[in-house]
Amino acid sequence: MTTVIALDVGGTWVKGGAAGPDGRLRAATRRPTGAEHGPEAVLATVLATARELADHYRPVAAGVAIPGIVDEPAGRSVLAANLGWHRLPVRDRLAEVLGVPVALAHDVRAGGLAEARLGAGRGSGNFLFVPVGTGVAAALVVDGRPLTGSHAKAGELGHLPVELAAGEPCGCGGRGCLETVASAAAIARRYTRRTGRTGTDAKEVAERARTGDFAAVTVWREAVDALAEGLAAAVTLLDPERIVIGGGLAEAGELHLAPLRTALAARLTFQTVPEIVPAELGPRAGCQGAALLARELAAEAGT
User: Fold this and answer.
1) Spatial distance between the Cα atoms of 140 and 126, rounded to a whole number of angstroms
2) CA distances (Å), 126 to each of 47, 259, 265, 274, in order?
3) Dist. CA 104–CA 177, nearest whole Å
4) Which CATH architecture has domain 4-106+283-300?
5) What secondary structure letter does DSSP report for 133?
6) Residue 145 to residue 148: CA distance in whole angstroms
7) Which helix (H) or strand (E) holds 8?
8) pLDDT at 181
9) Which of 27, 78, 138, 290 could form a disulfide with 155 if both were Cys (CB 3.0 to 4.6 A apart)?
10) Does the reported pTM lie above 0.90?
């Protein structure tokens, strides 16, 4: 059996796995990214995880999904602020260590590819994959493939401005970006600001909203409205038939999705309202997408 391995590099964890000829992940592992120790430490973790998987599975190809701005054709991380990477030739470094061809992908686009083939995007020729977690991003999947854009920056939904007048500063250098209101990190931060309660995460805010906590309900509604605002712009420009919501907030289920459907529909006039559904692959989507790309690479090489 020809096997491929896959990696998904995040700010907290490096996740890895192996897949057989059908491209489906059948084994998984993870280890701390070690970003607090600097960019070289992160790379060392990635290479060590890849070596460990390769020693065990003897792969014919590998795939790796990374965050930030990714030049996929060149195999390079242009900028991954959370990892400290800048113009790092990730694909070549991995290929040197593994001795097999390596596919490099943006983590959200890899997740969109996985949802298109194996998850909630099946049967849809044109959909948006929108993970809402620590940040907010998107992948536009057309005919089963995620679009990268002319400069490898397509899908930065989280940096659409939704609060122009009194918006918070964003890590991108802008102000009032969607990510500063609608992400899990923003929900926790805004709830703490309203209540003075520290150490509360978005999951806890969701649970408090379910019980009618006024501050939680307010912060949750603001997040949903902001996301609907961003999605309305995306729908107007891109006309997707489906929106697949992933990331940590997807775990809130209908508490998040039901008001989001209502808020989005209220903002659309002539546009066709897309269906909004939860992602199916959860936190393994990026790694699964990397495995599918590795499988394609192996097929092209005839292995």
Assistant:
1) 7
2) 35, 23, 19, 10
3) 28
4) 2-Layer Sandwich (3.30)
5) S
6) 9
7) strand 4-9
8) 96
9) 138
10) yes
CA atoms within 13 A on the CB side of 183: 21
- Unique residue bearing structure tokens 């609060």: 163
The gap from C-alpha 151 to its chain's centroid, in whole angstroms, comes to 18
Give the domain ranges of the chain: 4-106+283-300, 120-280
Q: What is the distance of C-alpha 40 from the center of its chain?
A: 23
Q: Averaged in consecutive runs of 10 residues, what is the pLDDT profile of the chain (303 residues)?
A: 92 93 89 93 96 95 95 93 92 96 96 97 95 92 91 91 85 91 95 94 95 97 97 97 94 94 98 97 95 94 74
Give pLDDT, residue 81: 84
CATH fold group of domain 120-280: Nucleotidyltransferase; domain 5 (3.30.420)
| Nearby residues of 219 by Cβ (< 8 Å), 6 or more positions away | 187, 190, 191, 194, 205, 209
Place of tokens 């959860």: 282
From residue 13, alpha-carbon distances to 77, 235, 293 in Å are 17, 32, 21
Q: Report the alpha-carbon distance of residue 222 to residue 48 in Å, rounded.
A: 42
Same fold, 4-106+283-300 and 120-280: yes
